[in-house]
Amino acid sequence: MGGTSDVLVIGGGLMGLAIAVDLQQQGATVTVLSRDFQAAAGHAAAGMLAPQAEELPPGPLQTLCQRSLALYPDWVEKLEALTGQTVGYWPCGILAPQFTLPANPTGAATAPRYWLDRSDLQQFQPGLSEQLVGGWWFPEEGQVDNRLLMQTLSMAAQTLGVDLQTGVTVKGIQQRDRQVTQVITSVGSFRAHHYVLAAGAWARELLPLPVFPCKGQMLSLKVPSGYPQPQPLGQILYGEQIYIVPRQGGQIVLGATVETVGFNPNNTAAGIQQLLAQAIRLYPELQSFPIQECWWGFRPTTPDELPILGASPCQNLTLALGHHRNGILLAPITATLIGRLIQQQVADPLLSAFAWDRFCSDQSSTAALLTLPATPATPMQLADRPLSDPNLSTSDTPLKIAGRSFKSRLMTGTGKFDNFDDMRHSLAASGSEIVTVAVRRVQTNAPGHEGLAEALDWKQIWMLPNTAGCQSAEEAVRVAKLGREMAKLLGQEDNNFVKLEVIPDAKYLLPDPIGTLQAAEQLVREGFAVLPYINADPLLAKRLEEIGCVTVMPLGSPIGSGQGIRNAANIEIIIENAQVPVVVDAGIGSPSEAAQAMEMGADALLINTAIAKAKNPIAMGKAMGMATAAGRLAYLAGRIPVKTYASASSPLSGRINS
User: Fold this and answer.
1) Which NCBIfam families does the protein's record reference (predicted)?
2) CATH of the domain at 576
3) Which positions are catalytic?
4) pLDDT by residue (tens digit) across 374-383?
């Protein structure tokens, strides 16, 4: 059995070491348990310090990141002074080149940024793509060499006297009366007065917290010998789906894929090809640079991509995990806030935004936080269940699209799920029979879509290929044809369905009415059953129906926004005039909003984000299936008319008079 320390830190990666150093400097005795130092996510990063370049939305995470960036110079100076080692801190600035002109190049930001036009951009950094229209310059951001930082933190911890136990696997955390009593490991038990869980992507193995691995592949290039400059890049390049990080020693780091594939190791040809293609597109000079190294790692990610920081249900256990893409940047502030919380009992107000219980309802407990049913539940099909009075009918005709019948009126999507198991269980729980698949993302093995086509049983589910990601009519038509072939390869020989999306606007993701109409006309001529995604425009909906579309799919509010039904009046007009099924698509965030859309008279719903990004996707899938059925039944039953005045529910005749 290990000795008793003031604080026992579970996890010897970036966060665990940073917290241990802070606590030891405050006078605590600290033990760190590390299973595999080299597997820590900190080794697989690029070391960017980029809260502005990454376009983090205003809110607690951006505030946390900005506070941590401000701490960085003093923090690394103290580490270097303590160890005599460098961490490669370089406030080099970040350049974010743009292939399309932003809507507001002079828009405000929380920190200085400057717009460079095409000519200024090329002078600022020669060799960039000629297709670029300009770029943002963020002078206050920079980088640290993450591998040097990890080595320096380990050395600092040992120099200060932290008991660093390596090669130790934690098997369980024993609790009693809301207290951790000991930690069971592969080499015995450890006890402490206080405990910190900083186990990164592996934390869920110890407590039922919603932390999942998000795989990232990376590689590095080397500036060729004899090149005119030892390092041609003077700053980080932050592009579309790629960042290029120059090191002062001549190395250039490319990253990183974002893959929800569990703990699936190794680099893949598709992942490396994706990184190289995007990097060369941005900075063509790289095509002649030799590849130096390839690697991968697992980011610890939560459903809302915010870290879990602060108190836990156990009074002597503090949480510090789930930092997703911002671990390197957030190390100083995490160590500071957690150290202050443990040693001084001072909870920074900002910690409340990152509390563990944001993933729980009021009735939830930690033990039930991520409890999944052993067998996926099937929602009650309310319209098919007879009521006790045989004179009351709840029968309903099936949903018919292009001559094909479906019992369920809920369509679901496959994007944004943390893993395939959650996706399968959620879709099964929803009762959905029509499932959309983004053709381009499957064809290109985009992050989170590798193996998606094979992950579902297409004998039980009707595939709805969609043209997500297409920005023009021509592109959508081409992708629709790929989708039809993909359906055939998966055994649906007669599937000519396509969900048509033409979305050139990357900010608001609103469909292009002209491009949608043009693509729909061509696809209908070529024999497709077209289900077009549109804004809630009654005139466009009627025109699409007239040219032969088999449904119209007006959005309730912008994709993934969870704003609910913001276009009710126009959707009601579409429903009133349509002779084809009306499917409300996008924006629904809760079962009550799903029921509302069905009560309006919609024929079906399409829901993805509200299920996939729910705290419990399986439960939400079931709830959405039930709400869709209930809303349909309510529509068939017919609601009472709205009256200006009250109407007593009990009769006035036969009253007892005093």
Assistant:
1) thiamin_ThiO (TIGR02352)
2) 3.20.20.70
3) 499
4) 223 333 333 3
